Amino acid sequence: MNNSQMKTIIINKNKNYFKRIGIIVLMFFVLYILVKFLRYPSEHTYFLLPTKNVVIIFSIVGIVSCSLVIFLIIKSIFRKDVFLKIDEEGIFNGFSLYSKKLIKWNEISKIETINYNYNNYIAIFLKETSNNEKGINSLFFKMNEKSMGTPYIITSGDLDCSFKELERLILESYNGRVSVVYQSW
Fold this sequence. Notes:
Blueprint: E1 9-12, H1 18-39, H2 52-78, E2 83-86, E3 90-93, E4 102-104, E5 108-116, E6 119-126, H3 136-148, E7 153-154, H4 163-183
Antiparallel strand pairs: 1-2, 2-3, 3-4, 5-6, 6-7
Helix pairs in contact: 1-2
């Protein structure tokens, strides 16, 4: 198998939105409760939130967190141009929050399947990783790098395929590419 024979694989976004809409509804419910906590902090003090100040801080952090989750989920629902593409160039991850969407084969040092918090991920380790992200994306980049060893992870949650199929397609493409590199020497 050589580079010109590698086929292009495109995996589209999963069109089943029930889970995401359920999470949004749940987040709005939690947001409603947090706003009530913020409006009447003295009514919501108990052993976990012993003072009004703790209730206020908890409410503000919760409101910001819920708003961020709602924003990210709504953004993922309405983005039309997202897909995962595997071809002779590399892996293009349109689902990624990062500005670097295309990871070229020659930048990859290894690809592994990892299990983190009872979820399976394809972890892509680069030879050189630099954080050029800004704002909240920079925070996500650092968190993923610290917790999973690499910021570049792919899951099948938003994809129109199973994790086993995703794993097979990526690893076959990568291993086929690696064998080409070794054969050319």
